[in-house]
Fold this protein.
Amino acid sequence: MAQVSAPPGDRLPALTKRVTQDTIDAWAKVSGDSNPLHTDPEFAATSRFGGTIAHGHLLLAWFCELLISWAGVAWLSAGEMLDVRFVAPVRPGALYEVTGTVADVQDGRAVIELEIAGPEGTCVRGGATAPIPDPAEGNGAAT
């Protein structure tokens, strides 16, 4: 059996994402959330955001994608999303990086700090727990 580890400081393979207005509109349709801050550029231009912004749940999906790419589908049943803070808007057109860093290991589970950052800095911060993947089982991309 392979030795499985995820020492604190290990970084999950980052994802690069670009959200478009089409993506936001599709998410609104699928989720039923047609808040004009997301879907109406004219309305959103008059808001404190100055334009449309991505839905929070779309951004959580990016975190889920990152965690599944690292821990495999085991994250779906054995992982847990912890505190999430939306600190700045995610805007259509810009490029964003989704990252995770192992902060601790408790009871064989990795505690992971998550971040989405773009041209203006950090947009979303969060945390999750995940089973530590066993590369021998092909259930994740542990580094």
Q: What stands out?
A: Strands lie at 15-18, 80-86, 95-106, 109-118, 121-131. The chain has a mean pLDDT of 91. Residues 9 and 102 are 5 Å apart (CA to CA).
